[in-house]
TrEMBL record, chain A:
The keyword Ligase does not apply. Residues 385-419 are annotated as: Disordered. Keywords: Cytoplasm, Repeat, TPR repeat. The lineage of its organism: Eukaryota, Metazoa, Chordata, Tunicata, Ascidiacea. Residues 394-404 have a biased composition (Pro residues). TPR repeats lie at residues 300-333. SUPFAM superfamilies: TPR-like. It comes from Ciona intestinalis. SMART domains: TPR. GO terms for cellular component: cilium; cytoplasm. The gene is LOC100184622. This is Tetratricopeptide repeat protein 29. InterPro entries: Bac_ResReg_Asp_Phosphatase, TPR-like_helical_dom_sf, TPR_rpt. GO terms for biological process: cilium movement. It is found in: Cytoplasm. Axonemal protein which is implicated in axonemal and/or peri-axonemal structure assembly and regulates flagellum assembly and beating and therefore sperm motility.
TrEMBL record, chain B:
Residues 1-47 are annotated as: Disordered. It comes from the Eukaryota. Residues 1-11 have a biased composition (Basic and acidic residues). It comes from Ciona intestinalis. This is Zinc finger MYND domain-containing protein 12. Gene3D superfamilies: Tetratricopeptide repeat domain. The gene is LOC100176509. Keywords: TPR repeat. TPR repeats lie at residues 202-235. The keyword Lyase does not apply.
């Protein structure tokens, strides 16, 4: 047994690997690897015992990852010595992809970053690798939810790839990919802020890049978001414009979900504009598409909206119909929806109002008796047919609720109306 | 200006006087010690015996040092003076007083003296090595080994530095097999003791690596130097100047193997690490106001704080950077950028060591090299310490 064998047996895998690397003269690889491990160790200590980092398996203990690092880092360094930057880039990119697949984001981030730095030295490819590296960094930042920085890199990517005929493995042009990523990032940025004007700016950007990115689906989504925001900013007219656009595209694509959302938003906008019939139309489409595609939550939503509108307009029977179906569907969903139940109750109350009024308006002793009876014994006889000719006039209510209900609910329904 | 010169002259004469005084002090102390050692040759207790031994060894070493002509340089005088202080009699060693407490006191005093002696002899040994006086380094190292055995026992990691000096001296004298033996001894000690620090290991492996390199066994040399770098990085970090030695020797091995690209990359690493370190030191030296003050002594104190290099490192830096510069200048395709960087680094080193003339020389060399670069290449950015050194040089001349 030689001295070398014993030391290999005695030392850790990392130790042996470092020595092996250095022995071949790959000191830069050693430095990078060593510092990566140390840096992570320090971070872990800083984060403390309670953190997620604490339970992370150290890189030192994962020999297959160390092997990958060894292989590609030394490859990169060998290429670096002879000035082949393309190969350096390829090796670093490969490492980043590998660590992305193993879920070690900090490592993939590191290598994407160094790949970008490397790409700046490649001169003869027209900036293609720089563009791709920017894209990768942008996506890495997106994974870390640093949207602003991510947007910067993706803008660079966009700028570099515009007008070029570069494509990725799936033959999607880089420029379109850039637009699609950017649109997504801008949307995320707008979601993150609560300032309407800022949202507006981001959504405008998102919409314009989406239009450029030639993905109709994304464009429609961006338009929908933009429209909704316009509505929030009390500009219903512009909102309707964008929403209509979104709806048309969605219909072309036969995407029921998007159609539903667009219709819902449109209905709201129309309603604020006072165009109730158009609003109802939209909601009907919304309900229909939801029913067709079997998305029940949306169906409940649509029915409730319709119900509210009919209720406001005084079409109580229609309202009851819609609320009933909303109530049934939400029961089917298994979640006890209080909202649907209450709305149904209100509508039913409203629908019964007429019958109750008739009862109250007939100035007969008979009726007085009934009311007094009810006062005395709480026996409910309002629904019984009246012994006079007048009795046939009022339609018999389908179900008799608790007599106190109408009063309470009339108030309640008032509230809904003003809403 | 004239007052400046005056101050400087005054200072130098003062320093001379001081040196003379310490030289005399050493003489008298040495004489006294010799007398004592002659008188006390028949001592009756173990502490006395040990102390006598210490005294004798010290005297012997001082004689050797004087014979090799080291009493001219202020650094050496400083060291010998410190040694003479250790040769003074033990505390409370008066005749007819041997209570147990008194014995304890003497024992403690002996121990501190031995420890100090160990350190001092080690420093002396190392310094002799750097000056190339391998013959004289051997007794110094043997003494340091003896003292460390006295203090720490036979199986301690603390013996390793002494072994290393011994090994290096032997290798320097061309006795490779003897050097090998010492190194094997050191390695065995390190392996046996789990508390050996990475720093010690780094030094040990560097020496073993150098021995292999001297024997021409490049493969093993590289392996050992890799171990050195690994342990140094563990202790101080990968870009620290402590790791530089490993990189440098490794580069030399690759150079001898004719693997120029690797050697080149490693030499650059050495230069870069030193450059960064010295740049920081220079910046701190410039920033500290006392360094530009008129009074000499404060400047000296400040310098000690700022440089943070011990003599060994100083010599190492000098050796490494000059070697790199030589190689750079002699390589067939001259890389002006790296030449400029080495020159700048050396210039900063000389500046920190207060050798202003050399600093300027190298700085202008660096500028020469940078001016030969194409204009679109970035040149090295250095702190502007030379303006300061211009002023100083005008003052001195």
């Amino acid at each position: 047994m030689s001295k070398v064998d014993t030391s290999i047996y005695r030392n850790s895998y990392k130790h042996n690997m470092c020595v092996e690397m250095l022995k071949e003269g790959f000191h830069k690889s050693f430095e990078e690897l060593f510092n990566l491990i140390e840096q992570r160790k320090r971070k872990r200590l800083e984060a403390g015992v309670d953190s997620v980092l604490w339970h992370e398996k150290s890189l030192e203990e994962q020999s297959e990852k160390l092997d990958q690092l060894w292989l590609h880092l030394t490859k990169a360094e060998a290429a670096l010595r002879v000035g082949k930057w393309e190969e350096v880039y390829a090796a670093r990119h490969q490492l980043a992809q590998f660590f992305l697949s193993t879920g070690d984001q900090w490592l993939s981030d590191h290598f994407f970053k160094s790949a970008l730095e490397t790409s700046l030295n490649i001169r003869l490819d027209g900036g293609r690798r720089e563009a791709e590296a920017n894209c990768n960094i942008g996506l890495a930042l997106e994974r870390n939810e640093q949207y602003k920085l991510s947007a910067e890199h993706l803008e660079k990517f966009h700028q570099l790839s515009v007008g070029r005929n570069w494509t990725d493995e799936a033959s999607l042009p880089h420029s379109s990919a850039a637009c699609q990523h950017l649109s997504r990032i801008y949307t995320a940025l707008s979601d993150a802020t609560s300032d309407l004007q800022e949202k507006q700016n981001y959504l405008n950007k998102a919409y314009s890049v989406a239009k450029e990115g030639s993905d109709p689906m994304q464009e429609a989504k961006a338009a929908l978001k933009l429209g909704q925001n316009y509505e929030l900013m009390k500009d219903s007219e512009t909102a309707i414009e964008y929403l209509n656009h979104s709806l048309e595209t969605a219909q072309d694509l036969h995407d029921n979900e998007l159609i539903g959302e667009a219709c819902e938003a449109l209905a709201k906008s129309h309603q604020t504009q006072g165009n109730v019939s158009r609003s109802i139309e939209c909601l009907e489409i919304f309900a229909q598409t939801s029913r067709d595609s079997g998305r029940k939550t949306e169906l409940v939503n649509a029915c409730n909206c319709l119900g509210v509108i009919y209720n406001t307009m005084g079409h109580y029977d229609n309202a009851v119909d819609h609320f009933t179906s909303a109530y049934q569907v939400s029961n089917e969903l298994g979640e006890l929806s209080e909202k649907s139940a209450v709305l149904l109750g209100v509508a039913q109350g409203n629908a019964m109002l007429n019958a109750f009024k008739h009862n109250m308006e007939i100035p007969r002793r008979h009726m007085m008796d009934r009311i007094i009876d009810w006062k005395n014994e709480r026996c409910n006889e309002f629904g019984n047919p009246l012994p006079t000719v007048h009795m046939s006039q009022p339609p018999t209510p389908p179900r008799v609720p608790d007599p106190t209900e109408p009063f309470r609910q009339v108030e309640g329904s008032d509230l809904i109306v003003t809403e | 200006m004239s007052s400046w010169q005056h101050v400087k002259e005054n200072e130098s004469t003062q320093a001379q006087e001081e040196l003379e005084r310490s030289r005399q002090k050493i003489q008298t102390a040495l004489k006294a010690a010799k007398e004592r050692s002659n008188k006390n040759s028949n001592s009756n207790d173990d502490i006395d015996t040990k102390f006598n031994q210490l005294q004798n060894l010290g005297i012997k070493l001082l004689d050797i040092l004087r014979d090799s002509g080291t009493d001219q340089h202020p650094d050496w005088i400083n060291l010998t003076e410190r040694m003479c202080q250790l040769l003074s009699p033990l505390e409370g060693s008066m005749p007819f007083m041997s209570s147990s407490e008194e014995r304890e006191i003497r024992k403690k005093d002996l121990l501190t003296k031995q420890t100090k002696m160990m350190e001092l002899t080690r420093i002396i040994g190392r310094k002799l090595l750097f000056e190339g006086k391998h013959n004289q380094a051997v007794p110094a190292a043997v003494q340091s080994l003896r003292f460390s055995i006295d203090v720490h026992g036979l199986n301690s990691v603390n013996l390793v530095p002494s072994y290393l000096i011994l090994a290096e001296a032997s290798i320097g004298l061309g006795k490779l097999s003897q050097g090998d033996e010492y190194l094997a001894q050191a390695e065995w000690t390190v392996l046996k003791s789990p508390d050996a620090t990475a720093a010690v290991k780094s030094k040990l492996y560097r020496n073993i690596g150098l021995l292999y390199a001297a024997k021409g066994d490049y493969d093993n040399a590289l392996r050992m130097l890799s171990e050195d770098i690994y342990h140094a990085s563990k202790e101080w970090g990968t870009t620290d100047i402590h790791a530089c030695g490993g990189y440098f020797h490794m580069a030399n091995v690759f150079f001898r193997q004719n693997k120029m690209d690797v050697a080149d990359s490693l030499y650059s690493q050495v230069t870069d690490n030193w450059f960064d370190f010295l740049k920081e030191s220079v910046q701190r030296k410039i920033a500290s106001p006392a360094a530009t003050g008129l009074l000499g002594p404060t400047e000296k104190v400040e310098l000690d704080d700022v440089v943070m290099l011990d003599e060994a490192q100083e010599a190492e830096a000098m050796q490494m950077l000059n070697a790199v510069l030589d190689i750079r200048e002699q390589s067939p395709k001259q890389n002006n950028l790296s030449i400029a960087k080495v020159c700048h680094t050396l210039s900063m080193l000389y500046f920190l060591l207060n050798d202003i003339q050399k600093a300027q020389e190298l700085s202008s060399k660096a500028q020469d090299a940078s001016s030969r670069l194409p204009t679109n290449v970035e040149t090295v950015s250095v702190p502007t310490f030379l303006k300061l050194s211009h002023e100083k040089s005008t003052v001195r001349t």
